[in-house]
Predict the 3D structure of the following.
Amino acid sequence: MPTLRTPDGRRYQASDDAEATNLTLGHGYTLEPEDTEDAEQPRARPRSRRTAGSSRPRRGRHPDRCRSDHALSKTYKFNRYVAEAKAAPFVLELDDGQQISITAPDADTVMDIEESGSSRRTLDLLTGEHAEQIYGLVCHQPASVLNGLVADLVDHFGLSAAP
């Protein structure tokens, strides 16, 4: 049975290889060597030293930045991103009790938002088919109303300023 290290440093004994694979791929667990007491600890590569008079930097990979050790590589599952995506609509309730349900933008729309450079265009892209109605609500209000609404939309849909 594989032994794993939890993200907070505790040890966990997986019941089988499938569970170990699931935990290492999506939950931040790392696989421990089978016999941790006898396992040789990886050693840091020594840094090269320049000789006095040497002005050229050492060519090749930097030992601390690039590792060719394939044991450290990790495989990411695209379906995990799809499953974790926030898809619930943003429901905006108006004073008269009417509700406007705004659906989450797709990735293409998010890229358009990032390139728009315009508050009006950003609002149009975020609110989709409800853009005219939403614009009518905020256009004569203080700017903080627009900023707060856009910030809540971005937060609700799990968007960020730079993906």
Q: What stands out?
A: The helical segments are 17-26, 78-84, 107-116, 119-127, 131-138, 143-156. Residues 107 and 113 are 10 Å apart (CA to CA). The chain is about 35% helix and 10% strand.
